[in-house]
Amino acid sequence: MADDILTDRHRRLLLHWRSLIPAGRDIPPRRSFDPVDIPDLLSFLVLADIEGQELRFRVVGTEMTEAWGKDYTGQTLSQIMGGEYHDFIRDLFDTCISSRAPVVSHSRFQWDRGRHLDTIRIMVPLASNADPERVGHVVVGQSFDYSQTGPQSPRVYSLKDGNFEEISRTILS
Is the CA virtual torsion 138, 18, 163, 109 positive or negative? Predict the structure, then answer.
């Protein structure tokens, strides 16, 4: 279950996200989310803006920069990565966006530098300030375990009716 793999930081991000949801809405607006409000989580966050069919990374925490080996603030997902790993990550974003619900994944972080790390990420959607019916942003909280290579097959969960349910996804080679 997703609850078993979430770290304290992932849980705190989820609780913070839930606390921002206004009455009568299913997700908080972007204007209510300020990373400065959760300074102890900022280092493991990415804030992505949805720009048409692309995702642009507006905020990239220091832990992400360290794991990636570069600060990708301002770049798009397609500029950052390609291939199967891009497709997997894009699918996670698309699931979060289309379901308007948090998505959790536990997978092998595969990077072009040939290393494989264990990673757990949670993605939470934010509504566009201009249109609360449209997801305009996704916040990602991602942690890395440098002592493990991660599971051979990714595990992906989506929040439905208050519980995380596993959803099937393509297995990365």
Answer: positive
Q: Longest Cα pair distance anywhere in the chain, in angstroms? A: 46
Is residue 155 within 8 Å of residue 92, measured between CB atoms? no
* Per-residue three-class SS string for the chain: CHHHHCCHHHHHHHHHHHHCCCCCCCCCEHHHCCHHHCCCCHHHEEEEEEECCEEEEEEECHHHHHHHCCCCCCCEHHHHCCHHHHHHHHHHHHHHHHHCCCEEEEEEEECCCCCEEEEEEEEEEEECCCCCCCEEEEEEEEEEECCCCCCCCCEEEEEECCEEEEECCCCCC
| pTM (2 d.p.) | 0.88
* pLDDT per position as a tens digit, 93-139: 999 999 999 999 877 665 545 566 677 899 999 999 999 999 999 99
Q: pLDDT tens digit string along 59-103? A: 999 988 988 788 999 999 999 988 887 888 899 999 999 999 999
d(CA 120, CA 38): 19
Distance CA 117, CA 107 (A): 8
